Each structure stands twice: as C-alpha cells, then as structure tokens.
Amino acid sequence: MVLNYIWVGLILIAVVFGFVQMCFFGETEIFNRIMLSTFDSAKNGFEISLGLTGVLALWMGVMKIGEKGGVVEKMSRVVSPFFCRLFPDVPKGHKSFGSMFMNLSATMLGIDNAATPMGLQAMRELQEINPDKEKASNPMIMFLVLVTSGLTLVPVSIMVYRAQMGAANPADVFLPILLATFFAAIAGIISVAVAQKIRLWDPVILGVIGGLCLIVGAVIAVAFTLPQEVFSKWSNIVAYILLLSVIVWFVVQGVVAKINVYDAFIEGAKDGFTTAVGIIPYLIAMLVAVGMFRASGAMDLLVSGLGWCFAAIGLNTDFVPALPTAFMRPLSGGGARGLMIDAMAQYGADSFVGRLVSIVQGSTDTTFYILAVYFGSVKIKDTRYAVVCGLIADFCGILASILLAYLFFH
Predict the structure, then answer these.
(1) Which residues, listed in sequence order, are joined to residue 135 by a DSSP beta bridge?
(2) 333-364 pLDDT, tens per residue?
(3) pTM of the full predicted structure?
(4) For residues 100 and 143, is the Cβ–Cβ distance under 8 A?
(5) Burial class (CB in 10 A: 0-12, 13-18, 19+), 376
(6) What are the φ and ψ backbone dihedral angles of 382, each rounded to 5 degrees?
(7) CA distances from 408 to 122, 159, 221, 314 (A)
(8) What is the residue extent of each domain of the chain?
(9) DSSP alpha helices (H): ranges in 197-329?
(10) CB 109 within 8 A of CB 239
C-alpha cells in the first residue's frame, strides 16, 4: 500500500508541477520533457529486465544444481543459528537461509550481477512458506531491508568512477563508504527488529554483528596498508575467485550426489527466464514515476528549497549540491550514478562535493528498484512496512555519509 501511495504521489506531483511551470513561468516544453521521460524510462526498464535475463538464467540454473545436490541445504544448516533468530518465522534449516546468505555475501563483495539472482531465488523460497501470497511476510521484509542497506566491503566500482574522473587518490572515500553502509545496515536491522519484536541482544546475534565489525576492521586495515591500485586489483581477483569457486563447488557436489547436473541447470535457467519476464511491469512502473518526477523539475525545487532552509537556520550548506544524488539513490541506481558523475565533473572528483556524492552512492542500495523487482518476482502486492524500514536505512546511510564527509574531508 505504501508503494502505491508513493507511486501515485510521484506522478501527481510531476503533473501539478508541470502545470505550475507552464502557467506561471512560461515553460511550454515542460510536458514534452515529462512525456519523453516516460518513454525513456519504460525503455530503460525493459532493457534492464532484458539484461537481467541471461544473468538470472545462469545463476538460477547454478542455484538449482546446488539445491538438488544438497549444497544449499548444508549452507542453510551452517547459518541457521543466526538466521533463525533474525528470521524467527522461517523453519530451522530452511533452504532459503542458504540463498539469503549467498545473496548477502555477493552484495558484500560488490558482485551485484550474482547477488540479484540469488536474492530472487531466496524470495521464491520465502514465498513458498508465506501464508498470504499477496502480502509480504516478516522474513521477506527483514531480508529486503538487509539487501537495500547495501552493505559492501569493497566498493570497487565507485573507486573506478573516481579514477576515471581524475581523482588523485580514488580510494580516499573507501573508509567513509564502509562506515556509512555499515551504519545503514545496522539501522535497517534495528528498524525491522523493532517492528517485528526481535530480540537483538541475543548472544548469537550480538556475536555475528561483532564478527562483522571485525571483518570490516580487517578490510580497513588492509586498505590502508596497500596502494589503491593493488587493493582494487586484488579485491576484484578475490571476489571473482570466490564466485567461480561457488559454481565449481555446486557442480562437483551435484556430480557427487549423482544428479543430472545439466538437466538441473536447464530447469533452473527456465525459472530465471520466467522471473525476468515477470518483473518487467513492476520495474517499468517505478522507473516511469521516478523519471516524471525528475523531468518535471520537482527534484531540483526540492533540493534548492532544502538548501534555503539549511542556510536560514545557520547550517553549513556545502553538502547541498550532493542532495540530488542522495535523493535519487533510493529511486534509481543509474540516475544516482549519473548525478554522481555529473557532480564530480562540475565540482571536481577531489572536491568536498565530489567525495560526498561518492560516499552517498556507496552508502545504500536502490530501495525502490529492489522492492519493485524482488516483490514483483513473487507477485507481492501489500509490501507492509518494507518501504518505511528501507527508507530508514537509506536516511541513516545518507546522514552518516554527510557527517563522515565533514569529518574526513571538510
């Protein structure tokens, strides 16, 4: 229901703002721009879905091998003590634990192409035990908020963009990004845990979160001891070796379990193709609304209005030029990336704004895109409080990004 209100609100605001611009400011081309944005957004939504088809077919085929070969079941048993407390409504040792673990692991390594199919597989498995097939279950909401928080240990892509834009040290934003995305993930977990009355002070949950803190600390230590080029190179190598190892492990386990590995892959790949086609309407709907809102100029007005408010109460407004990227981040990954690059081109990659937009881009994931794709893949209509908790994680990540940018670079 919340997603419905947001979608309708974005479209109505865009239309009303278009009329205001045409009637009072003589912007006769405004509705041309809004309509063109709907065509471009619909095309982008289809192309994104089409681009996902091959990757989904590949990884859902691999996941099917793992499922039939018993690998996913073994992984589920390993993570079960922690996940049973974080997802109390999921039966102990359920196969969705393995899929969720693999999705979150791929996200932390920055391998988005692999994370999405694994996440969609987890949603399908969670839907199997969902008593109301049109309403998001508690485990689905917790899982998606973890996904939208976008906890990433190695933000290689952002460092690459900074290098292309001429940054003297592209990795200087690594530590702020790591801290910002970690705070976003913690905020997301807490918000859902409060809504679902989950005991966060359980020793197992505290132990796992403490272990993640140690991993984050270790990655930070390595990043500071190695040159940026060496760190980026080896982080990529390690990530893709681990990914390739998963494929080999699943195939070998399938052979050991004496299943028909090829047939299992084909069966999973067919499911991947069906899933990719199924998410097209949901993705196009969200991208069109976001595109209209941006093309109408409402986004620019919102940013300039907030800048005036911050200045009026005496706050430093150096962060205001980065707000378009911050507002776009939950709505559109590609849009936020474009705004980040545009800000670095305008202000400089090593400027305060250039560094801040990089931190914001890495602090969280694209909430509305993820909710549209993941819930759409299992035809969930009532998302309950998933949007609210996802936006809480986004807000905390963006706020942390701004504060950390002032701490490190101002």
Answers:
(1) 382
(2) 767 877 788 788 889 999 999 999 999 998 98
(3) 0.75
(4) yes
(5) buried
(6) -100, 105
(7) 38, 17, 17, 21
(8) 2-409
(9) 203-225, 228-256, 261-278, 280-295, 298-312, 323-328
(10) yes
